[in-house]
Amino acid sequence: MTELAAVKAALKTQSVETPSWAYGNSGTRFKVFAQAGVPRDPFEKLDDAAKVHEFTGVAPTVALHIPWDRVEDYGALAAHAEKRGVRIGAINSNTFQDDDYKLGSICHPDAAVRRKAVDHLLECVDIMDATGSRDLKLWFADGTNYPGQDDIRSRQDRLAEGLAEVYERLGEGQRMLLEYKLFEPAFYTTDVPDWGTAYAHCLKLGEKAQVVVDTGHHAPGTNIEFIVATLLREGKLGGFDFNSRFYADDDLMVGAADPFQLFRIMYEVVRGGGFTSDVAFMLDQCHNIEAKIPAIIRSVMNVQEATAKALLVDASALAEAQAAGDVLEANAVLMDAYNSDVRPLLREVREESGLDPEPMKAYRASGWAERVVAERVGGEQAGWGA
Ligand code: PSV
Ligand code: MN
């Protein structure tokens, strides 16, 4: 196989998971701007996600969020997904929206609240069983706002205890993906603030526990690709929550704020063998002012473009320059790949896969947006928290 053929073959195997919540209405704490045609239930969210997959060919799974996507019959939801040509991806838990969680969930000082939180996580594993989902994605809003508010160490003990109970419940082939975030909603301490804390817990738990890197969850200036390289090297990178940020946890379209960072991350993924392993490439985004389905298509394409550039890095030229200590040449090799226009290559890849080479145009021409605006009348639109 020529090198280019190998790059194309790799791109054809790529998959990016889209999040159910990105199809619903969202906003900031100031305002949620409703959009016409937005899904009214999890089934309609899957219909929209299926459109993203239909036009990109690389978005076959959809992450759910419980309780926002709670339904009577999860088997029926999974069957609906399959009928539309997609599958249920990660199950995202929610231990941050009940009044009980004011002082935390599985780290809460009160055992009754901890029980409630762990029971919710166990329910999420039941949903994984019913939907055939592989991953339980955990993000905890737990933390404190004031020095002395609670005991930092005891909170870690409670976290370890809760995680261990859920870990024990995981079935064959199921994984627990633990996400970290430096601050917010807690402002003084966060119980899982960084990759080191997530890694320490996952290491103790065992093989089925892996770290998730949400690209928006770091302090400005953090070298995320270093974290990626390290976690991959340790066999502990479970996946990504891709999005982009200018300031904090902005949840904007991945690759929008800093496409070069996305390329550097994807380069480390390729370099570390993560592209051909079980690393889950998920989006965790909200589209507050832009049309949702096109924004998700754009995001998937941004991931594809960064991946294509990363795959184009001339590995032997890079290794040679690095071994020779040729700083400028090594940097030039990397920048060459980054500066290549991979859009024609991706158009070819799509054509060879029987897709329209221009997903965005094809989606617009499909009439889906107009159809859902006309059909989805009445009922309540899905949104953040529903
Ligand atoms: C909340 O901040 C969040 O964005 C986390 O990153 C989770 O991954 C996602 O929502 C779903 O709960
Ligand atoms: Mn996330």
UniProtKB/TrEMBL annotation:
Gene3D superfamilies: Divalent-metal-dependent TIM barrel enzymes (3.20.20.150). It comes from the Bacteria. Pfam families: AP_endonuc_2. GO terms for molecular function: L-rhamnose isomerase activity. Keywords: Isomerase, Manganese, Metal-binding. PANTHER family: L-RHAMNOSE ISOMERASE (PTHR30268). This is L-rhamnose isomerase. It comes from Streptomyces ardesiacus. The lineage of its organism: Bacteria, Bacillati, Actinomycetota, Actinomycetes, Kitasatosporales.
